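TetR/AcrR family transcriptional regulator
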Amino acid sequence: MQRGERQVEFATRRRTQLFDELVTLFLAQGFARFTLDDIAAELHCSKSTLYTLAKSKDQLVRAATIHFFRVATEHVDSQIVGHQDARARITTYLTAVGSALERASDTFMADLADFAPAREVYEMNTRLAAARVQELIHEGVVDGTFRDVHAAFAADLVTTMMVRIQQRGVRASSGLEDADAYRELATILTNGISS
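Predicted structure tokens:
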């Protein structure tokens, strides 16, 4: 490996590390109350280092949100590899989504709901997750695990519940923590559409 390649690899690793630390900070404490100076102090880096990640705090929050959902999506997708049974794939997928969001504090979720650029990232990821559930349902219909249901409608139902979970509406009405709500959603969905 040449010197220039090592420098690029180090810079990429350092950038990923900073985003991981930033996500950990935001998930635990939210982001609305932090200034760039606060964030730099929390991450033990300079403000100029943060500017290498994004040009403003708003862009930094959006970039960190994208990073969080990209890493979470990779993890969630990896959880269903090897599962052949359609029920197990949907249950594993939705449970993994819930687990990925377990680290998110109420403060983070409230900040996310109040900050349009980050909320849009969440909503886009919710739509992508629902589309993935729709694919899994369709696969289950094809292999006979599920009765012939309208997969798009089932996915829309899942999307609606995912948004209610994210907005803490399910917790307020049922007392269920997010991860538990995703497990319940998986159980109700897979039992409701089973052959």
